[in-house]
Design goal:
By secondary structure, the chain is of the alpha+beta class. It is built from 2 helices and 3 strands; from the N terminus they run βαβαβ. It has a single domain, classed as Ribosomal protein L30/L7 (Ribosomal Protein L30, Chain: A), CATH 3.30.1390.20. The chain has a 3-stranded antiparallel β-sheet with strand order 2-1-3, with no helix packed on it. One of its GO terms (cellular component) is cytosolic large ribosomal subunit. Keywords: Ribonucleoprotein, Ribosomal protein. Pfam families: Ribosomal_L30 (PF00327). One of its GO terms (molecular function) is structural constituent of ribosome.
Length: 60
């Protein structure tokens, strides 16, 4: 299974609490922080909710 590298590109200041919670649950903290997570339905669903705040690439 592939992995996704998720990078926070925008600040969560002024965003709704649900979006802040999703960012925190993914393990992202500051702008430009990145995590590598498995490519599954749960990860893709979370990323879809905050796709305007993150950049996603396929990590090997």
């Amino acid at each position: 299974m592939a992995n996704l590298k998720i990078t926070l590109t925008s600040s969560v200041i002024g965003r709704p609490q649900k979006q802040r919670d999703i960012v925190k649950a993914l393990g992202l903290g500051r702008v430009q922080s990145a995590v590598v997570l498995p490519d599954n339905a749960a990860t893709r669903g979370a990323v879809a909710k905050i796709n305007h705040l993150v950049e996603v690439t396929v990590a090997d």
